[in-house]
Amino acid sequence: MAAAAAVPVCSRIIATAPLSNNLMAQLMPKQVMCAETRKLHYYYRPSPDGTRILFGGRDGSIAGDPAWPTHQLKRALADIFPVLEGVAITHSWWGHVAMNRDMIPRIFSRDGLRYAVGYCGSGVVWARWAGQKAAWQILGDARARSALEFRPPPAIPLYNGTAWFLPAVYAWLGLSDRLGRPRRYRASS
Description:
By secondary structure, the chain is α+β, with helices and mostly antiparallel strands. Helices cover 28% and strands 23% of the residues.
């Protein structure tokens, strides 16, 4: 069996209970999407109606839908926004994102098929654009040129369809983040 080049990784988002207009203005004055630079980064934004904070990150689980990732995200939310320490979480959901070793989205061909893959959690941003470029490439359209034109992503050694190594990867990345930055983070938007 050939080694796989992408691993399905759980990504989870939580939503706070509705917050006051004053608190939302204080926490997210520009009402824009935010992300961090940590290796195990979090991303957050106001809900479309501007009343809640949607907060997400990799949840670290490899099977099922355990409750602990929601608690971990709530703790991280309070690290970034200490005023939200006791806020209620009303929603928690998750899905898989495809991660590859080099974390580079790409368009490539293999065995006569065209692929636009490897968004590594940024599919909302890249998928429509890359998919359109891949379709134009199939059609021979001049608009098909893309900076994402790469060879297929490298295979992931010892990956057999079960991401058994993810807990160790998350532990390593988390340790790296803790050694490189202070415990509390302040949001700046």
